[in-house]
Amino acid sequence: xxxxxxxxxxxxxxxxxxxxxxxxxxxxxxxxxxxxxxxxxxxxxxxxxxxxxxxxxxxxxxxxxxxxxxxxxxxxxxxxxxxxxxxxxxxxxxxxxxxxxxxxxxxxxxxxxxxxxxxxxxxxxxxxxxxxxxxxxxxxxxxxxxxxxxxxxxxxxxxxxxxxxxxxxxxxxxxxxxxxxxxxxxxxxxxxxxxxxxxxxxxxxxxxxxxxxxxxxxxxxxxxxxxxxxxxxxxxxxxxxxxxxxxxxxxxxxxxxxxxxxxxxxxxxxxxxxxxxxxxxxxxxxxxxxxxxxxxxxxxxxxxxxxxxxxxxxxxxxxxxxxxxxxxxxxxxxxxxxxxxxxxxxxxxxxxxxxxxxxxxxxxxxxxxxxxxxxxxxxxxxxxxxxxxxxxxxxxxxxxxxxxxxxxxxxxxxxxxxxxxxxxxxxxxxxxxxxxxxxxxxxxxxxxxxxxxxxxxxxxxxxxxxxxxxxxxxxxxxxxxxxxxxxxxxxxxxxxxxxxxxxxxxxxxxxxxxxxxxxxxxxxxxxxxxxx
Length: 532
Known about the structure:
By secondary structure, the protein is an alpha/beta fold. It is built from 14 helices and 18 strands. Helix 6 (168-182) packs parallel to helix 9 (275-310).
């Protein structure tokens, strides 16, 4: 736990005034969870990245200045549906059953809204859902199918079905504010507000058309990195079999998809014969649209906080802003997510609750978004279901030392497409295995951009051995069997999980010693052809 010091005395005054005026009680806090799609932590100014003067998010930053920012939160499966299921259930993908997009949560998996509902919370969900199950544990819900549209979204749910005119982020917030006004004010509540933005292709409201127009936005250090000639098969296979490189994708690249976009989002002038200039133009196109998109998120969060303040309940409410995963904004020449690498696997997580959290706190412990569900349940005074695999963050929110037996690394699994892979990330190293290539190792302390796979370097032999052992340990701890690992049995993985889970008490087949074998131990490099 890292508590950021040297803050102004005003924050200390604010904190203790909040404590004295509210005298921490046993009352259940209200909860507002704003879950958005593909918001990179680098595009939140509170995270102080190279974009901090351009991707300005004053309202999201407020959650940090009056609460806590998490710097080491990751997702266990960096794609929309699996990550959302992990947040809801507090379980890894192989346990909750959602391995890929549009998955269905297992019926026996707990979901934190349902647990809160049992305690008497009134619960409401609006926005993107992106799971095959109907929402569980919500008194009322209005969601869109799949991604939904950026404009004039078609909503359906417990309140019927209708199309609402306008920009989706505005529409979802309008509905949420109406519910906040009409709720039963004698009961605690959970509001789940879920934006599509800033998912590709970064639709933004017209009022942001001129935001940063004509401004050259700083590039990430690895924008022009040629991953085709690197020593990482993870990256090579990814760009070969996906569309997610600015220029060099095996499928339709970002440049090809957007070179004919029209004003106000037209691609800027560039030399169409120069690879470097096409990448530059593609990045500037992406980052301008992306920042315009997130400005809408920030402005609408401001409306929500304003409503809570007007009702006099802001300080009685846990407010969270997070994303279903991170996102590449030109790093390695990429956009999108999916891999275990930093900008993809790290997700922003900011929380405000002055009854408990010191303002401007920074947490650097190894956290995963499966920790969200048990955290909210503990805050509400609920019993945490034993099948949840996450850990409550409440001790960290209080500024206490990390609890005993806290995780020593973060497990990652990806079934979605080539390359299927799995691995672990600790505070310094990222280790990756796959059935398609030999193990890879990245030293983020000496190589923070993860440009160099050092698995073959003799000086890292001990680290490689230790990280492999750490992966075996995490595989065993989370109860994933050899036949369940990504790539081990592509045709049968979903059948195995759906059909054999109950017999193992919800923890996974192949526990214990059997789980120390993996599909990637052969070390043979093979090339896959699957496409998502």
